[in-house]
Write the structure tokens for this entry.
Amino acid sequence: MTDIKTHPQAKYRSGFVTIVGRPNVGKSTLMNQVIGQKIAIMSDKPQTTRNKIQGVYTQGSVQMVFLDTPGIHKPDSKLGNYMVKVATDTLKEVDVVLFLIDVSAGLGGGDRFIIEQLKNVRTPVVLGLNKIDLVHPEALLPIIAQYKDLYPFAEIVPVSALKGNNVSTLLEQLGKYMPEGPQYYPADQVTDHPEQFVCAELVREKILHLTREEIPHSVAVQIEAMSVRDNGVVDVSAVIYVERDSQKAIVIGKKGALLKQIGEAARKDMETLLGSRIFLELWVKVKKDWRNTEHVLKDLGFRHD
């Protein structure tokens, strides 16, 4: 990713940035663009991110730990409640908040709701105007004026997370708010999540891409086993959980065709991530109404702690 300019004698600065916004505004795309590789899954379906994904950006004497949070929305399940709480809780845990909006979608009720939440924190808030590649440049000025009337943003930066346009400027602006502090992670580390978590997310991403309607939000993926053979091949066994037998049939597909397609696509991304050959086994199981079952949510890693 593009460098932040730092003075050779500068003291080390480090801190945390949370990325908040409505579902589907491009938070995960921006995270991956900043980090320089895929650690957060991307989909055109809203509410893709379910946990707080930490990405580590290190350049010169600055380290920023980015939190890609679930889109803030009106929840309709215990899982939804968990997702919204994860996002809003980060507002008081960080050094700067990046409020990302989709300039092609217009100001909506979800944006206004988030702004009301921001009024309760003292953390500096930077407004990121994302998807500028989808609108005419002249359309940005009235959008900026509209948001400035609603909140005193510390900075306002137009970007295209997908194309990478102006992301270096955004990083420079965010870097200004990092306090003096330690280097939390090694310079070559890009996430604090274990490989199993990222691999599970990659499988879920492929399901989101290849299925529709009832499936996306009814799916969870858990890595049950991960081991390395003597020849360097990594064996990965993953379980895909759905809520109904009909959903299981859809994910498997006719003669297992869709499940095979999911596995092949996920395996390629895992091999890029781990730099090793992958042998991936996928199983599909039904856990009825798992999104509203407390102990199942905890077993799958959805914990407020």
About this structure: The first strand starts at residue 13 and ends at 20. Residues 42-51 have pLDDT under 50 and may be disordered.
